[in-house]
Write a structure and sequence with these properties.
Oligomer: single chain
Strand content: 25-35%
Radius of gyration: 18 Å
Distance between the termini: 45 Å
Structural class: alpha+beta
Strand order of the largest sheet: 2-1-3-4
Number of strands: 10
Largest sheet: 4 strands, antiparallel
Shape: globular
Helix content: 25-40%
Order of helices and strands: EEHHEEEHEEEEHEH
């Protein structure tokens, strides 16, 4: 891996079943193409490997990460197209649905919002810094616009409106599923979400 040059994707299982693998793999391909990398194996080969790892693991609910990097480099800068790929599987721990968390806004954005890159330096620095002060995670803030958390998209509900940011974010697969499920129950607003009163007024 040269200079953090790489992308990844993360998905989970429910009872040994991968959650929306096809959509996650499509995003993985898009991320790779965005940064000029090529996945060295077919979708079918990778899916077969994922299922084998799931079946080998004793836990039912797993988090699975697919990594792709630019690989080794003769001069530690330019890559020669020998990409490295691997999969990591680990049991998931998650919060109860009714558990409140503390979030801290920080003035950062993703370097390449359309690609899920390995560059989480700023997010990791801020998340760890504020974790020590009692916060559970951070929210990216771009000139008073609330974008996303370091690991999640953001949704706001006001009466029958479901509001979420529509630009400068990594569009999550779970976000897509939520929007599809919610459209019959809510008026969907994809727009800038401003910190303060604008969250409510939309102005």
């Amino acid at each position: 891996m040269i200079r953090g040059y790489g992308v990844f994707d993360f998905f989970r299982t429910y009872g040994k079943t991968p959650f929306h693998f096809d959509e996650h793999f499509d995003r993985f391909i898009l991320s790779a193409k965005t940064v000029d990398l090529e996945i060295p194996y077919s979708k079918e080969t990778i899916y077969s490997a994922v299922l084998s790892l799931i079946n080998l693991h004793p836990a039912e609910n797993l988090g699975i990460k697919m990594y792709l990097t630019a690989g080794k480099s003769d001069d530690a800068f330019f890559h020669q197209g020998n990409c490295s790929f691997w999969i990591v599987v680990a049991p998931l721990s998650f919060l109860a649905f009714d558990q409140a968390i503390q979030l801290k806004t920080v003035p950062i954005t993703r370097e390449i919002p359309t690609a899920k890159t390995l560059n989480y330096m700023q997010a990791s620095i801020y998340a760890n810094r504020f974790k020590r002060l009692g916060y559970d995670n951070i929210i990216y803030l771009d000139q008073n616009k609330l974008l996303e958390s370091s690991t999640s998209n953001l949704f706001f509900i006001q009466k029958n409106r479901l509001i979420t940011a529509n630009a400068n974010i990594l569009e999550g697969i779970t976000r897509k599923v939520v929007l599809e499920l919610a459209q019959s129950q809510f008026e969907i607003e994809l727009r800038e979400v401003l910190l303060g009163r604008a969250i409510v007024t939309g102005k």
